[in-house]
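Before drawing any conclusions, I looked closely at one protein, both as residues and as discrete backbone shape codes, quoted below without any editing:
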Amino acid sequence: MGSDRQRAQLHIAGLCAALVALLTSALGDLSAHVPLWLVACGVGFLPIAAVLALTRSPLRPPSARATVLVVLGWALLIRLPLLLFTDPTLSDDIFRYVWEGRMVAGGLDPYDLAPNHPALTRMALDAPEWSLINHRELPAIYPAATQWVFGALASVSATTGFFRAAMVAVDAALICTLGALLHSRGRDPRWLVLYAWHPLVAVEVASSGHYEPLALLALVGGLLAWESPRRGVTPWLLWGLAIATKYIGGAAAWFAARRLVERGHWPLALLGLVTAGLCALLFALPFALDGRPPIGSLGTYVQHWGHNASVHALLTELIGYHPARKVVALLFVLWAAWLTWTGPEPARAFLLLFAGLMVLSPVVHPWYGLWLIALLPLVPSPPLIALSALLPLSYLAWTTQASGGGWVTPAWVPWVEYGVPLMLALALPASRSSSPRR
């Protein structure tokens, strides 16, 4: 009886989340209705909060696998209306995905030729996405494995709809992998809703088509393989794939190697890091045969781009834009060194590392939050959950632009976006220390 009630509760919550997604899709152009979408995001968190509240009661049979399938089923229903009835209006990244996939499928190097290169004029005339590409003067920035995936997808169908559907499929695989990792850790599989039903995740994947699930699948798959008694080289190969998909994705390999060194297995640690590095290089090698490293416009991103920053924005007021970039880079290195020294397990270490990156980076787009959200079911953190819920506020830049003010977030947004999680982080230790001891 208890299991039937729990299953019914999960289905009711999933239905509510799917209805919110359906209402969100009815908005059409999300960039033109950001305030309404933000309200929908807030309402979309209520079913998640309800399910997480239920985790205080132990999950009864049937198995955890059945619970994961229920969560997955509703996750797909949440994504379906966003995939079918909305266009990628909040972000234009997917148009570059399709264009670069078209280039790779045609045997061209997207790291050498920017979209507006004269040699590509004929190709641009036949590509409906070309006029919608951001920064057409810059070559590719996405890592090599991602380009191969884009090329494979474009060889089937060079359309944004197909690319978005593919990312939804990858996201479904990621949800299953997260479910397996929760099971291996003995955690309640209902925590999976924190990623699978998250309103921001659903929009960024199904509507905007961001490829984050592709890199996260390699990262989380590596974590799952790492916890297997017969792990072998599998986690290192997967983390190498993560590096080649999104550079930060391979950081878990470093923390896993640190654990091996701590146990006295430094040769295995070195072998693992070399394996991950060689795997990443293998994907990049074909793009480097012309003697130029496949980094494209990565240097431009690192040196010049900025949006929705916190610490960097504050430092900019004190010492200037570019000096502030150097300071936050140093602070991030120190943060990574501290995590290496203290040695949290790889999943927690990666979560903390990426949280530090979000706080220190000069560029913080909402879809970066998927890297935090994917690991929160494994390592719950109320301040980071709050941050994930507040990240969509930066899309108010569209509202600012519509009123003639340029594509910038309102000045109050970063104070709320980062300030609320900070206050929560400070309040939680205080509340624990003031609670009566028994």
The chain has 21 helices and no strands.
